[in-house]
Amino acid sequence: MKNRNPHKAAIFFAGPTVTAIAAVLLVVCLVLFLIVVPAVVRALILKETRLLNGTETWEKWTDIKIPILIKFNIFNVTNIEDAENGGKFKLQEVGPYVWEEKRTKQIIGVDEDEDTVSYREVVHYYFRRDLSVGSQEDTVNIINVPFLSASTLIYKLLYSSLANYLIDFFMSMDEKFVLRDVNIRELVFDGVHLGATYENLADFGIVELPDEFVEGTFAFYNQKNGTPSKEFKVNRGIKNYKDFGKIVEFDHQKKLSYWTNQSLPEDSQHQYCNKINGTDGSVFAPFVSKDQRLRIFNPEICRSIYLRFDKELNFEGIPAYRFSIPEELLQDPYTNGENQCFCTDPGSGLANSCRGHGAIRMFSCKKGIPIGLSLPHFLQGDKRYHEEVEGMKPDPSKHETDIIIEPNSGAILRIVKRIQISTELQRLPGITAFSKVSEAIVPIFWVEERGDLAETDVAEIRDRLVVPLEILRVWKPIVLAMLVLSFISGVLMSLYEIYFIRPQRIQCISIL
């Protein structure tokens, strides 16, 4: 008999067919979107985050092409006579004086069993007059760090009238509390000549001076232009991607010795300040989460630091995370117990209180000279630091340290490191020359080191990683929604056939 309603007959077959096809495609897409694609993306990222000789990652790591600028801002003393006679130091920031860095790594060896690579880093600095406020021949007046250093070391060593005699002898050689008309080039790299007296102190073994003092000269980065660093040993990240770039040893040591707190047991859980944690700041492991700490070891400041997640942002079309230094990092140990082992006693009756957040002493890692570390202009620091000197103008937009990172690959899109180095001026008991000084933490300079990923590298990350992931993010819910609707439509058509079409067909057959 002729089918009087062919469309209803088609529905009889379409319902189960649509349901079956939609169900299969839905399962396939779920597997594809939730398992296959993430696994492929993960595998591609892991392939790029390994220090393997011959790869693009290796080449970029050993010969850094991105422009890195280092900017020095010097605190010029404007009230020299008043400051030298016990007055509060009045400081004027002068800068920036800018150098461009060229960083390369001298590979010493690779240990495949240990999954490590050892190297020394060489940094060449090239002055950028076009980005600087003046020339390298400009001069400034700064607090006399060499004199304060030598005086403090002599006092700690002799601790007697002989120390007072030697320091008075320095004063008779025209040493004062302010170092006048210092050449910028010499102050930063080449070395300010100090005279034979300082050199003799070191040669005769009277005192041991830190790296800033070399052959009778003083400079912030003395003999570091083009000089290989101490040896680093870092993890290649081949066996475990989470260890990618982590420092295993520095200068053949697995930990430091600067921060041992003698008041605590050697195996105390609070003796972790000597641990070498994190990378050198040039690479990070992939799959960065908001709740993790980004750890960096910096030999310049003799310690590891960490940054915490601050906010999400869009960096030139790339979804990114911003990490910054938290206030807790430089809090005093009475506020943050984690910093207890950074509170070392300088000894010899010198002030040893660590009360006051925002700055830490570096005496122990600088051979005992009175050097302190903080953020520029004592950002996040105690009010007293701003009151002890004049000229501090903290501004988070100018003085914070931050890293902008693409979280999937761990690629650094921009890094800005900013630190301030100061000297602690205090009265030395029994030393006549220091009896009237105005006790203060006096800033010497602050430095910004900044690296921005080149536009071609930003475009590569955007095109190879972000765009595909964004396409997937947009189309995944659309495709899944369409398949779910198709599946629901198939089920409804099947139900319609079961409860409406089939009874009518049975009724028609019964009548016939």
UniProtKB/TrEMBL annotation:
| Pfam families named in the record | CD36
Keyword entries, A-Z: Cell membrane, Glycoprotein, Membrane, Transmembrane, Transmembrane helix
A molecular function GO annotation: scavenger receptor activity
Q: Which domain of life is it from?
A: Eukaryota
Q: What is its main location?
A: membrane
List localization entries: Cell membrane
Q: Which GO terms describe its cellular component?
A: cytoplasm; plasma membrane
Family statement: Belongs to the CD36 family.
User: PANTHER family in the record, alphabetically?
Assistant: LYSOSOME MEMBRANE PROTEIN 2, SCAVENGER RECEPTOR CLASS B TYPE-1 SR-B1
| Name of this protein | Uncharacterized protein
Q: Which organism is it from?
A: Allacma fusca
